[in-house]
Amino acid sequence: MPEPVTLPTMYAHSSKSVNDSSRSTFWSRSPMLRPIGLPACRRLPLSQLPASQSPPRSSIPPDKLYLDSVVQAYGKHSGITLSQGGVTGAAGGSAGGAMINSEEFEKFQQSQGAFVSQQLKILLRYLERDSRDGYRLHELKHADYMRVQDELDSTQKEHGKNYLQGIQPAFDPLKACHFDSAWNWARQTALNMFFDII
User: Mind listing the GO molecular function terms for this protein (predicted)?
Assistant: First the structure.
């Protein structure tokens, strides 16, 4: 029966073909370490801890159980309290992820919203712009609209609906007269003089 390969042995084999920077980048970005709930700055030292903790030779557990045990050991060593998001069964696989408190998450969202709002105010101040200009313009336009509407309502109340409908413009471009000859212009001038006299 071949001897199981431990994590230090894998480090020894990988060191021949992979340098330290690429190995550190791989472990810091490893998807297996993301559900644990640790920030990226703590994933690298966590990935170096398995070099001193090899899995048992008699029965090697699944990788998730092994990584969970390493994470708990790292949290105990660093003084960090970590919660188990799910329990791995005998057939393998895990359920759930990192557990967070809903109240703390809502507080975090509120703090993030306040932070973004503060950043927007700083940027607008740097650009010498006021975020309330749009609201002020809307208020002015709304005030003009209400003034005109009040005038129309008072006119309609005084004269009735038929008056407003009767004074509406009724220009039709098809009824416009176009004079393209001197005789037509002379006739129009004569009509103007006739109506001026009477």
Answer: transferase activity
Residue 52, φ and ψ in degrees, nearest 5: -105, 0
Cβ atoms of 43 and 105 closer than 8 Å = no
Give which of 100, 91, 42, 40 is closest to 71, Cα–Cα. 42
State whether residue 103 is helix, strand or coil.
helix
In Å, how far are 26, 29, 34, 52 from 22, measured between CA atoms? 6, 11, 18, 20
pLDDT at 134: 86
Give the model confidence (pLDDT) of 55-96 as tens digits. 555 455 566 777 778 878 877 777 777 666 544 444 444 445
| pLDDT average, residue stretch 126-146 | 89
pTM: 0.29
Domain ranges of the chain: 7-99, 103-161
